[in-house]
Amino acid sequence: MRLAVIPARGASGFRARIKAFCGKPMIAWSIQAALASRCFDRVIVSTDDDEIAAVAREWGAETPFTRPAALSDDHTGTLPVIAHAITEIQQAGVSLEAVCCLYATAPFASADDLISGLDRLEGGTSTMPFR
Asked: Domain segments of the chain: what residues?
């Protein structure tokens, strides 16, 4: 299975991930790009915040777990957050083929960018059946 993980911490207080940007919550742009790319079997948001989780679900992402407080502070890097998401998904019995981290505050990332990235990951040999 191919998985897109969008980390979206709520504890920062600024709430940029759900602030409107060009008519949509910032996180919606990343969710829509991931879904439109058709590269992923699942698009999940890793968050510690109920409001961010609700917005993510509204725009089509899954929120299958709540990120623990220990991974939601100002000093936690992206790698432990993605590792936690992978562990959570694998503990649910899912085997992963590839994982993509897509930031919630990346409104200019496009479906074509994600398709190109997957193609490179696969050695440039894919026939892009996910389009």
From this structure: 2-121
